[in-house]
Amino acid sequence: MEPRGRVTITDVARAAGVSVATVSKVINDRYGVAASTAEHVRSVIADMSYESSLVARSLRSQRTGVIGILLAEFEPFSTELLKGLAAATAGSGYELLAWSGGGGPDGHVGWERRSLAQLSGTLIDGAVLITPTLVVPDAGIPVVAIDPHAGSESNPSVDSDNLAGAASAVEHLIALGHRRIGFLGGRPDLESARLREEGYRRTLAAAGIALDPDLVRVGGYRPETADAPAHELLTLPDPPTAIFATNDLSAIRTMQVAQSLGLRVPEDLSVVGFDNVPESALCTPQLTTVSQPLHRIGREAMEMLLTLLRGEAPAETHRRLPTELVVRASTRAL
Amino acid sequence: MEPRGRVTITDVARAAGVSVATVSKVINDRYGVAASTAEHVRSVIADMSYESSLVARSLRSQRTGVIGILLAEFEPFSTELLKGLAAATAGSGYELLAWSGGGGPDGHVGWERRSLAQLSGTLIDGAVLITPTLVVPDAGIPVVAIDPHAGSESNPSVDSDNLAGAASAVEHLIALGHRRIGFLGGRPDLESARLREEGYRRTLAAAGIALDPDLVRVGGYRPETADAPAHELLTLPDPPTAIFATNDLSAIRTMQVAQSLGLRVPEDLSVVGFDNVPESALCTPQLTTVSQPLHRIGREAMEMLLTLLRGEAPAETHRRLPTELVVRASTRAL
DNA sequence: CTGTTAGCGCCTTCAG
DNA sequence: CTGAAGGCGCTAACAG
Questions:
Q1: How far away is chain B from the Cα of A315, in angstroms, using its nearest Cα?
Q2: Beta carbon of A82 within 7 Å of strand D?
Q3: Residue A120 in domain
């Protein structure tokens, strides 16, 4: 009906011949409106296909009925989590809003604090932070972190058993006869990266293998940042026969770098990843990796947040879920 | 510094001993503030780690610098597109916001109109709609649709060659010797579903195979809605030897239903899907499917939207990208 | 039962 | 160069 731009509550009020307040009452089913008036207003609303502005409503009211998923970028790890998070939201009455903090590629530390400040108190009632770079201070709304920056002293969180997961990856390589095992680490700001390195070190030590510092590099969890260190590892005078890359994206990139150097995987180089994102099964050769239960992590994080939003105390504020080694085609006995 | 809840511009102004207006000017780099004052205000802002509320800012200003991706739910198809959309946004100066319209599971027709009305004009400067259920009227902001409801008369859009894609799937099955080929259709409100059915019908006709109406069912593109029709097809007195399910999720579910009925895939039943989402390579057996270039679709849709946002006219308002048959392990010669 | 009055947090004239 | 006033669209008191 109404052509130009947005239809506002004022337009509706004028068209219906009532005040703005009355329209608002009708929309929100508040008492004190004659049935006939309400009826009439409703029909005008339908006619004009009016929908109240989320922004204006949020600004005024406390509750918005929206949960924010704050992530650095839309990459496979985050989008897998999204599926689990979304599944757990169904039927809760909350809408889901995924917000890419812009910090993105540069990995600007603090993106989650900025994003949270921009959205909390106004647009969202609660938030799930995916791989935050720091412990966020009280944001005034319930917050749950997935794969967080720090340990158990901080915000409620869900992660998987990174230590045991890394150990299983390295044990697998050792069992295949590998002794020179390269390590491509993750984002130093994340606890997961620290624990995966710790798992690597301990497992080598337990097997009586001396750690060669030359074989330990920082990959940053992203293809672009993993490229150079992977290349360095593979062009060492005495290169590793296997590499444990601590997430799938960097593992896949490592395989590509190896192939570009004329190395065959797994004949000349074994590679193990971490995460088990769908992409790990789509590359050639298919990647051996440590599986994290990503959907379940998302689901449990959302359940924790919903509990918090209900004003209840969650059974546990830190959930740690098990990992599992998935052996595919990128590893092979020496 | 400031403990309780959000820090507002008023808090900053008070702490800095200036007016709200001055703080606003500093934030937005507007003329008319003494260098020393600006400096001071900036330091207070940093101290209090103040961040202006997206909501309040949006309400007041025209431009928000945010692009909305509106989707019915976070399932594999949408999240794959998200990766491409996000990649194309990098460096554009826009932030990305993915909004799940709530209509979700029930597939409530019109979710995108509602979502758009709620967000446009206030929160987002432009939008990409994923599988909208109808042609959206002028929303006052640029809108691009992916896999749209209707044909070329409507909004700018990007999709893939559904007709040719469906044909390639059915031709593949015919080449394998199949004659009784079941069809599990998609969402009737989408053009893609119509075109895929058309491709199925034409290809059968071209091969001189009479169409058995009993073999044509509506699967709705979702696992839950595909379950029953798949079951019906497989328990027919004269069941099909192959099924073309028009998206991967329903194809995967079809394989599960078959297995639950004691049928082996591909020995007893061949199955072809559509989309080539990552999940299609993760199931057992791996799914033969028609690949859509999902990342590229997302990228091109975003580029089109960015062009529109710049106020320019896009080279073409309807992009149709090629599909490709990916033969894996779920199909076999009769 | 209805309309008027105040803001939510912010930005933008427009006086001082 | 700075602050006071008005209003974005909406909801929540309070009067009438």
A1: 25
A2: no
A3: yes
Q: Does residue A71 sit in helix, strand or coil?
A: strand
- Considering the domain architecture, whether residues A86 and A206 belong to the same structural domain is answered as no
The letter for the amino acid at A266 is P
**Interatomic distance B62 CA / C7 C1' (Å):** 22
- Cα B26 to Cα B195: distance, rounded to the nearest angstrom: 55
pLDDT mean by block of 10 residues, chain B; 334 residues: 66 92 91 88 91 90 89 93 94 92 64 86 90 80 89 80 98 98 94 96 98 97 96 98 98 97 97 96 94 98 96 92 97 96
Nearest nucleotide over every DNA/RNA strand to the B57 CA, judged by C1': C10
**Do residue B166 and residue B136 come from a single domain?**
no
Whether residue A117 and residue B51 make contact (CB cut-off 8 A), yes or no, is: yes
Per-residue model confidence (pLDDT) at position A32: 80
Determine the distance between B84 (CA) and D7 (C1') in angstroms.
39
Per-residue tokens: B169: 């799937």
Tell me the C-alpha distance between A60 and A65, whole Å.
13
DSSP code, position A5? S
Tell me the residue range of the domain where A38 lies.
9-52
B93 at A interface, C-beta within 8 A: no
Domains held by chain A: number: 3
Q: Note whether B244 and B288 are same-domain residues.
A: yes
> How far apart (Å, rounded) are the C-alpha atoms in residues A300 and B316?
44
- Which residues of A fall within a CB distance of 8 Å from B95? 99-102
pLDDT single digits (tens) B270-324: 999 999 999 999 899 999 999 999 999 999 999 999 999 999 998 899 999 999 9
Residues A287 and A300 occupy one common structural domain: no
Q: Extract the runs of DSSP E, i.e. beta strands, from chain A.
A: 66-71, 95-100, 126-130, 143-146, 157-160, 181-185, 216-218, 242-245, 270-275, 288-291, 318-321, 324-326
Residue B327 falls inside a structural domain: no
| A325 CB neighbour count, 10 Å cutoff | 18
Instruction: Based on the fold, state whether residues A180 and A122 are members of the same structural domain.
Output: no
User: A60 in a domain, yes or no?
Assistant: no
A230 with A123, same domain: the answer is no
Q: CA-CA distance, B3 to A162, in Å (whole number)? A: 34
Q: Looking at the structure, do residues B281 and B303 belong to the same domain, yes or no?
A: no
* pLDDT tens-digit readout, A30-84: 888 888 899 999 999 999 989 999 999 988 887 889 999 999 889 999 999 999 9
Residues 6+ apart with CB under 8 A from A35: none
Q: Which residues contact A27 (CB under 8 A, 6 or more apart)?
A: A9, A45, A52
Q: Which residue among B56, B82, B122 sits closest to A74, beta carbon to beta carbon?
A: B82
How far: B5 CA to C8 C1' (Å)?
Answer: 14
φ, ψ at A326 (rounded to 5°): -115, 110
Q: What is the pTM of this model?
A: 0.90
Set of chain B residues whose Cβ sits within 8 Å of the Cβ of A124: none
Q: Are residues A288 and A228 in the same domain?
A: yes
A239 CA to chain B: closest CA distance, Å?
32
Is B61 within a domain? Answer: no
Question: How far is the first Cα of chain A from the last one, in angstroms, to the nearest whole number?
Answer: 73
Q: What CATH code is carried by the domain that includes residue B145?
A: 3.40.50.2300
Residues 6 or more apart whose Cβ sits within 8 Å of residue A118: B51, B52, B53, B54
Nearest Cα residue to A119 out of A154, A71, A51 = A71
Query: Using the beta-carbon criterion (under 8 Å), do B55 and A51 form an inter-chain contact?
Result: no
